[in-house]
Amino acid sequence: MQRGFSTLELLIAMALMVVTLSAVIEVSFGNQDMLVSGEMNAEALRMAQTLLEEEQQLARKDFKLVNPIAVTTNGPYDTSVTVEPWPGDPYTTKRVTAHVNWSDARHVTRGVALTTLVSNFVSASGADTCISALTGDWSAPQKTDYQLASGSLLPSGFLGNYPLSDIDASRGTLYVAVASTSAAARANFFVFDVNPSGMPVYVNSTDNNPSSIDGINAVQIAGIQAFVANAHDANFKTCKPGANCSQLQIFNLNTLSTPPVNFLIPTSTPPFVLGNMTSNNQAVGKSLFYKDGYVYLGLTKTASGPEFNIIDVHDPATPAWVGSFSVGASINAIYVRNNYAYLATDDSSRELIILDVGNPASPILALGTVINPGGLGFGRSLYGVGDTLYLGRTFANGAKELYLLDVADPSTNMSAPLGSLVIGSSVNALVVRDYLAFLVTSTTKRIHILNISNPASITPFAPALSLPGTGATLDCEQNVLYAGSNGTGTGFLSVITSGP
User: Matching InterPro entries, A to Z (predicted)?
Assistant: First the structure.
């Protein structure tokens, strides 16, 4: 992802974040007769303008809400909206066209089409390059499986096992993280070129901690930086900050062979985060989310100190701790929108926690915190679109593993769920695109494709796809999904596309 904008672009991004870049009006009339149908032409033009204005309002709220609208009859007019990636920047810009068609008194079909470009400056500095608008036939998806091993995705010479922990697709490149290798000094962060129809092509790799088999639990790309949650388990009170003594690491993707910036959350000053004092795997980097120059980092349960930490990375070379919040449990996933952070946790009584992070130095509990929505299980995965938060949960007999929650106003007590569904397995990752939700499950080793257009009645949209291993992670680039799964130490990458 390219980093840096002109002064004008930065001003626009700060003021609007999602803006209309340009507009092109295309007006076509069959058998032009302005004198006869001028009034209907004017009304059609007004309707098309209104449709575009509505799409622009949705874009300002959440770029993922800008999606096609099927043909709708409105009096004598048929209206619709088409949305497609703009070839000039298919990752963060959509071409939106409003169509209005009608038949005049002589039964001649006439039409008006207005087109505009909308761009998402949030994604321009972040990592989400999934296009929400669906194309192709997703009722008959195509899947190809690859093994993260020498002779498949990796060149010869890569020894041992590489189980996937996380993946992030960004601007034609796929970044794959491995939490643990079978021996020290083996790569655990991989870079691949991807295209919509072919096999990912190996480009580069590195080891975040050559002295250990521990690798990376989570990764997010922002510009030329890769922010990763370090999976190494250390006594953070006594160890010396470095690759084997840090929870956050920052790679420069232009110089991947250069050792990363290592950041250890302070132990002798606030927030006094300690690990491995009473048991193993305490205070380890577990999950993260990047937004607007801050990394929101989730840890495994600490020996003492907060599991949720906010780190200022405006200057990636000198990250600085800003604020924190104690959860008392591991944080499995984080999603941040506006001034709120949503945490999926291993606390069975607070599996979803909502924090007001408007003041990063002092996160506070929001009134809308969900307490144990499903009775049993933990919070496992999160995805947000507009005012709806999608919560994936761990499996618990008799409980539901998917919840759709209204988070329009997190400062108030949350209303009843918009919808929920029994999946029969832990939902380890999920992606939502328009009216479809894609879920990766653990023990059942499936990718579920669900129709969520009516949250109160969620139904399968396509037969579930089998994964070669236990589902671990999922991401999307434009119209392609990438799923990671694991079997007996072996990692697999599945590429999922729509049918023709």
Answer: LVIVD, N_methyl_site, Quino_amine_DH_bsu
> Nearest to residue 481, comparing CAs of 131, 45, 239?
131
Instruction: Give the model's pLDDT for residue 249.
Output: 99
Residue 295's closest CA among 275, 276, 320, 273? 320
Task: Please say whether the beta carbons of 379 and 345 come within 8 A.
Answer: yes
Is 375:396 a contact under the CB 8 Å cutoff? Answer: yes
Q: How far apart are CA 35 and CA 487, in angstroms?
A: 71
Q: How many CB atoms within 10 Å of residue 320?
A: 11
Residue 27: its pLDDT value, please? 46
Q: Across the 500 residues of the chain, what is the mean pLDDT of every consecutive 10-residue run?
A: 39 37 43 62 96 96 96 96 95 95 88 95 68 96 96 94 96 96 95 87 97 97 97 92 97 96 95 82 96 97 96 98 97 96 94 96 86 79 97 92 94 88 97 98 97 98 98 96 94 96
Q: Are residues 16 and 68 in the same domain?
A: yes
In this prediction, residue 495 carries a pLDDT of: 97
Which residues does residue 180 pair with via DSSP β-bridges, in sequence order? 214
Last residue of a domain, one of 427, 447, 480: 427
CA atoms within 13 A on the CB side of 474: 29
For residue 18, what pLDDT is reported? Answer: 40
CA distances in angstroms from 403 to 328, 330, 416, listed in the order given: 23, 20, 10
State residue 275's pLDDT score.
84
Residue with tokens 């997190």: 410
Spatial separation of the C-alpha atoms in residues 486 and 14, rounded to whole Å: 41
Question: Domain check: are 303 and 384 in the same one?
Answer: yes
Cα angle, residue 454 at apex, residues 79 and 133 outer, rounded to 5°:
55
Residue 233, Cβ neighbours under 10 Å: how many?
A: 17
Residue showing tokens 């200022």: 312
Using alpha carbons, list the distances in angstroms from residue 210 to 26, 160, 255, 362, 379. 58, 15, 17, 36, 32
Q: What element of type H or E holds 97?
A: strand 93-103
| Two tokens, residue 478 | 């434009």
Q: Which pLDDT belongs to residue 26?
A: 43
* Domain around 259: 163-427
Residues 55 and 186 in one domain: no
